[in-house]
């Protein structure tokens, strides 16, 4: 019995330390924090828990004169850490930063082997100085290749690669290398449908996203907690078995109460809104896969292909093939670029 119960316990959020040290360029940390928040919102639960950690006494002076107030110090345990780079144009710049950050480098060197460490740009030099990538493959900013090769001879450098993951350590090139790190992280941990939704919400113009009829059932845009739960529930239920009474039972409210809430927050009738949740899944599948409508119909539990296509055309004014052609190009190129 204990093992059966434990297998159903929810997995805790992955705690990710956003490391801030004097002189660092923290833009990538802000982008990562926003991305993790968007993913949590899309999933409907906390999958990633980013926390800001300072290599100092609460206040850290970063690049270009800004000062950040940190919530946590280095002793705060995390499952993974994201380490940004610093501005360096010469080997001397690297040497000066490594000398200034000797205590921080010592701390990096003492991190347990099981702890994931992701870094980019010249943050890789700090990880190399800590000995964390000795005998590991790694990449970094290409214009300082010779300086890094000369100083860190135990590292298996490959400056032709934009991002490299070797065991628990991920390195990426360039000041915007955090995107390569985050993309690789999402590909390995998130369903294509989640990546697609987050990409639509954060990376591309509104005109290139899916049909506006689905906006009321976008998890990432839904602020009402009960409706977030209901979207997640409806996505798991076969289309043929989804109805207002069962949805109300799931939320432990009356059908009338649920109907009013849906209408209040979405300006769409309850029955139509529940249908849109399933049709949004159809739209997602059309864009994130090459599956036939027949296959999608079976996977999502619709009664038959003909009724699905009629409902989809009624909701969007488009056939499934027209929808795939019009909205699929931006998503396909985005997902392909991450692989």
TrEMBL record:
Name recorded for this polypeptide: Helix-turn-helix domain-containing protein
InterPro entries: Class_I_gatase-like, Homeodomain-like_sf, HTH_AraC
One MF term in the entry's GO annotations: DNA-binding transcription factor activity
Keywords for the protein's UniProt record, in alphabetical order: DNA-binding, Transcription, Transcription regulation
Domain of life: Bacteria
Domain HTH araC/xylS-type as annotated: residue spans: 228-326
Pfam families: HTH_18
Keyword RNA-binding recorded: no
Species of the source: Noviherbaspirillum saxi
């Amino acid at each position: 019995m204990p093992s059966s119960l434990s297998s159903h316990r929810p997995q805790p959020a992955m705690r990710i330390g956003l490391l801030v040290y004097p002189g660092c360029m923290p833009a990538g940390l802000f982008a990562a924090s926003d991305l993790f928040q968007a993913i949590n919102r899309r999933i409907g639960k906390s999958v990633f828990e980013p926390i800001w950690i300072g290599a100092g006494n609460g206040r850290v002076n970063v690049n270009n004169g800004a000062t950040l107030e940190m919530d946590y110090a280095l002793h705060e345990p995390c499952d993974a850490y994201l380490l940004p780079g610093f501005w360096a144009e010469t080997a001397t710049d690297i040497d000066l930063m490594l000398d200034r950050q000797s205590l921080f480098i010592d701390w990096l060197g003492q991190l347990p082997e099981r702890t994931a460490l992701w870094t980019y740009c010249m943050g890789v030099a700090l990880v190399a100085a800590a000995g964390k990538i000795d005998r590991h493959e790694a990449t970094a900013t290409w214009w300082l290749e010779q300086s890094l090769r000369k100083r860190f001879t135990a590292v298996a450098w490959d400056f032709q690669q934009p991002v490299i993951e070797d065991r628990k350590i991920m390195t990426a090139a360039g000041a915007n290398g955090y995107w390569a790190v985050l993309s690789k992280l999402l590909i390995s941990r998130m369903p294509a449908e989640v990546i697609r939704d987050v990409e639509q919400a954060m990376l591309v113009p509104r005109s290139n996203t899916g049909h506006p009829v689905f906006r009321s059932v976008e998890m990432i845009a839904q602020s009402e907690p009960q409706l977030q739960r209901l979207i997640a529930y409806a996505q798991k239920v076969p289309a043929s078995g989804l109805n207002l009474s069962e949805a109300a039972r799931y939320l432990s409210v009356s059908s009338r109460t649920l109907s009013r809430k849906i209408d209040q927050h979405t300006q769409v009738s309850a029955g139509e809104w529940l249908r849109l949740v399933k049709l949004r899944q159809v739209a997602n599948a059309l864009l994130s896969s090459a599956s036939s409508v027949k296959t999608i119909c079976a996977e999502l539990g619709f009664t038959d292909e003909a009724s699905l296509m009629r409902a989809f055309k009624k909701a969007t004014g488009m056939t499934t093939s027209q929808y795939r052609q019009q909205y699929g190009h931006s998503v396909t190129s985005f997902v392909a670029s991450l692989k």
